[in-house]
Amino acid sequence: MNLEATVADLAQRLEAVERRARAAEDHLAIANLQRMYGYYVDKSQWEHVADLFARDAVLEINGRGRFIGHERIREYMRHFGPPKDGLLMNHMQLQPVIHVDADGMHGYGRLRALMMVGQMGDHAMWGEAIYENAYVKEDGLWKISKLKAYQVFYTPYDKGWAKEVSPLLSEFGDFPPDEPIDPYPVYPEYFCPPYHYRNPVSGRE
């Protein structure tokens, strides 16, 4: 192999390594973005939560409807009010499966949230949700472009999912969505939120 061919080969290898490095960095950035979302929700830091969303983002949580655009999402977050003593809102972000498009500008994530929600002296709930989210690199930063949280269950902590569960949480009475969404089954009914990816072995959806 002559010098010119060797240099061309090395340049191709370097470009491939750089693509893999960028993909790894994007994967980590998206995972950290989603984890930060959980920590901010935990402490009712709604302005921080809203800052994580893209300008044209879409938010869907449980059966509350679809909220479109950054400012509407900020209004949604503010609807929950400031933090207060005795409030527990833990949203643990678990089992992330993340994919990034070859363009390095769009990503997708599936993960679950295990929730401990309640107010001391009033109520306490266990909950679980499955997220199927999309992400976009906007102004050089990864942001949430679509957050879709499928309710799996909510149950009183002292009874558990073997005895009592809540129906799908519906729209806020005093804060209507931009668009309604179709209801879907929640536990104990069987329902599997659609995956954003195919089976990596069989290729089946």
How would you describe this protein?
The protein is built from 3 helices and 6 strands; from the N terminus they run ααββαββββ. The chain has a single domain, classed as Nuclear Transport Factor 2, Chain: A. A 6-stranded mixed β-sheet has the order 2-1-6-5-4-3. The chain is α+β, with helices and mostly antiparallel strands and about 200 residues long. The protein has helices at about 5-40, 45-50, 70-80; strands spanning about 55-60, 65-70, 85-100, 105-120, 125-140, 140-155. Helix content is about 25%, strand content about 35%. A hairpin with a 2-residue loop joins β5 (about 125-140) and β6 (about 140-155).
